[in-house]
Design a protein that fits this description.
The chain is α+β, with helices and mostly antiparallel strands and about 230 residues long. The protein contains 4 helices and 13 strands. The strands form 4 sheets. The protein has a 4-stranded antiparallel sheet with strand order 1-13-3-11, with helices on one face. It has a 4-stranded antiparallel sheet with strand order 2-12-4-10. The termini are far apart.
Length: about 230
Amino acid sequence: MDFHDPNSEYLRRLVLGLARYHSHGPPITHSATRGWFWDVTPKKAVGHQARSEGKLNFPWHTDCSYETDPPQYFALHVLHADRCGGGTLSALNVSRLLENLKPGSYECLSRPEFLIQVPPEFAKGTDTITDSLITRDKDESETRIRYRADIVQPLSNEARTALTELDTLLSRGIGAEGQSLQVDLTPHTLPDNTVVLVDNGRWLHARTEVKDAKRHLRRIRWGRRTFSTEQ
């Protein structure tokens, strides 16, 4: 954007417009006190802290991967980009990633053989869910993923093997033919006043270590969508 928008009014109107005119679904309330927007900025750890609010790198994941109906979309409004060489946002296309999986691993990841731990800071009466990591729509037109390595536990040897293959692909970041699977969006690419929209089921994202204590993004999520293949 070529204008200053400290209250993220443009983003609010954009998301409401997508819900109204393109059937994206309504914005999701983060909490009773934060409303639709969540300010992502480094904070001193007090009790259980969301990883996005720390400074350490945050490896590949999808937002709310521990929920039965994670948001289909999220957006970030860059209010203050990292000016100290950190805070690079990376994105990785799920379709390109899954093309590199063995068929047997793909099928295993599509079965509800994974125990997913709900982080304590987001617990709402349920500590875990059991589900697949990959799902396809009933018409098989779209494949989605849920993933966050530190909270996923395979429930069978076959599931463990499939998850290891997926983890290895993500750590390499390259496909079978040596092509890069990820896009790195540095603070130079996403300067102040940038807005980026992400399909949360079709793109994994990650963040490098934050080095600027003033780095400030504002996030909004919308369009809850049931993930389970059993639905």
